Amino acid sequence: MKTTGLAALLAVSLTAGCASHNISQPSAPIQSVISAPLEADIELGQDISGDSNATILFGIFLLGQDNKYADGITYTTGQSTVDRGFFGGVLGQAIDGTKAAAAYKAVTASGADVIVAPRYVIDTQDYVILKQVSVSVKGKAGKIQNIRNAK
Known about the structure:
- This protein has 151 residues and is α+β, with helices and mostly antiparallel strands.
- Helix content is 26%, strand content 38%.
- It is built from two helices and four strands.
- Strands 2-1-4-3 form a four-stranded antiparallel beta sheet.
- The longest helix has 25 residues, at 86-110.
């Protein structure tokens, strides 16, 4: 009886699992440029700020990151904030996501439409098995008053 149960457990554990299937299709990038020459009148408001934190465990698991973000928070030349190797990819995701969460908190708390002249402070603490990422953003609140076609 005991061996039958053990054999059944062994058979189930050997046949159960997860599978992933990926097919790559070679393709060429399509470049398209869309231009909308617009001008906006933005009213400057008070100083605003926002903070967010994240933790990376064993260089792989991203823990404790906020779940609300502002889209388009990439104030770079298209390069990542860190090298995106295997472990760098997790750190890069943590920094990018934490920046976006800090911006979201700053904008929603102030009622602003945009952050004018944002300044980010990124602090990374490395404790061998875990890394802590803290991001704060400061800038001026901007309220969009009018958007029109550029002359």
